[in-house]
Each structure stands twice: as structure tokens, then as C-alpha cells.
Amino acid sequence: MAxxxxxxxxxxxxxxxxxxxDTIKLLSSGAxxxxxxxxxxxxxxxxxxxPLFLEGEAGVGKTEVAKVLAGxxxxxxxxxxxxxxxxxxxxxxxxxxxxxxxxxxxxxxEGTANREKxxxxxxxxxxxxxxxxxEALSPNPAGAPVLLIDELDRADEAFEAxxxxxxxxxxxxxxEFGTIxxxxxxxxxxxxxxxxxxxxxxxxxxxxxxxxxxxxxxxxEIVKTKVPGAPERLxxxxxxxxxxxxxxxxxxxxxxxxxxxxxQALVELxxxxxxxxxxxxxxxxxxxxxxxxxxxxxxxxxxxxxASREALKAAG
Length: 316
Hints:
The chain is of the alpha/beta class and about 325 residues long.
């Protein structure tokens, strides 16, 4: 069932899905293989106009949800990449101080400087530099965007408190300028790799979902969708091997992103199946820490490969 376009200020946008099944199809149209639980919470977030908070290990597809929604719905994607020390100047707005100083100097040189009028002029829209949060809340003929607040756990706790007004009321307050409230709230996706806990105050403003590693059949479906040219046997063996790797005591288990990278790398090498030597030569594509790579000597690789093949047989 195709989603009918609607008009938003003269611009055609895809309508929001009307059911969970429509949401599954919507995500599938962007080559995202979602289970029903994830599709349900995405549908509810869109239907209720609530931010969606996605947690999970790195590489399981949290960020991709926002990208796919933006593409499938015909929305702009506004991305705020979080990091330690992120503040409002980087996330919300800042003033163009150089242009403000030039305007002040010109007014003084022309003898037309009126302090009150000049203050109003230099703190006007003309000198406001919009950062991602303000950009997402500002009116735009292209329609309300998808706002991705990515890896919030990397930002400081103080930044979480700053976000509360944005996520609760879809508005921000600029002291020199006033309050800006979104005419149409953006679709908000917040992600976290859970390197630290996010406060309850922020979570209460969102719907929540944990994206886990996919099981063998779904990960194989993801590989077939994303790397359609990969040989069937190679795809099955890579997925089974990665599934077996996740059961090992690793510093960082590989995510679905690493599975896709590995399949693509092996396709580039014209491989059609896994063998111990090929695994040893390319293990750095799927494992990203030297301590993890060093654990996999020839004997260990053979053991994991055997276990993965037994799992494939059991799965049929």
C-alpha cells in the first residue's frame, strides 16, 4: 500500500503511515529490515508526535532509522552529532560576532549610531547563525524535518537538561531574540550507545526502544538487502560466523554494520565462501580492537568457524 503524498506549504510530502504494517513497508522502502517491535514504536512515535529514544550497541542501525525515515517521508534530515563539551552555541545558535562588530563600526563611522536601535539591529535575524536544533524548529517551506540527535550519551549531562525544553515543547528560548516554537514539530530520533545512563527526565519525554543484535535469519535478510550481489553461501557463512563471534568474550562485539562491511570486503576479494586463512587475513574488518584480533589465532578461528557451520546446519 503506497503512502499518499500531502501538501505542506506547497511542497509534496509523503503521508505518515496509518498502521504498523504501513510502517514496516515504509522502512523496507529505504532498505531497512525492521522487526515488528521496532516498527510498532516508530509508528507510535509518528502517530503521537513524540520523540523516539533508541538505545543499543554501536552498529545495530539506530542512526539508520532516522536516515530512512527522512528519505522515505521526503523530509530533510537535520543531524546533531553529540560529543563531550557540546554546548548551546554549537547545538542551537550563535551570533555572527564579526558581522555584528562591522555593523557597529560602520554605524559609528557614519554617525548614525543609536544605541537602542543598534542593539535591536545587531541582535536580529540577519546576524543569527542557526545550528541544528534551531534549524529543525524554524519554519521551512520544505516541511518539518527529521531531527537526529545522535549518540547523546557522548554529551555532558548539562546538555541533557538543555534539551528538555526542546523535546517537551519543541521550542527554544534565545535571550536576545525571544522564544522560537516549531509551527510543525519535527520528527525527533535520539540515539545512545549506552556508554552512560541518560537521565529519566529526558527519557520521560520520549518513547523508548532497545535495538538488539539481529538473529541469524534477520541479519541474513539485512545482508541480502544491503549487499545483493554477494554469493548466497558467503553471506550465510559470514552471518553465522559473526553471530558466533558475539558469543565470545570480546571487548567490542561486531554490529550489523561490521557484518555488512565484511561481506562487502569479501565480495571485493571475489570470495565465495569462508575459510580459515581468509578469515585471518580480513578479521580487522569486523573486529576493531587489537586485543580482540590477537585472541583469534588459527586454532580459535577453526573452533568458531566450526561452531558457526553447526549453527547453520541447525538453522536449516
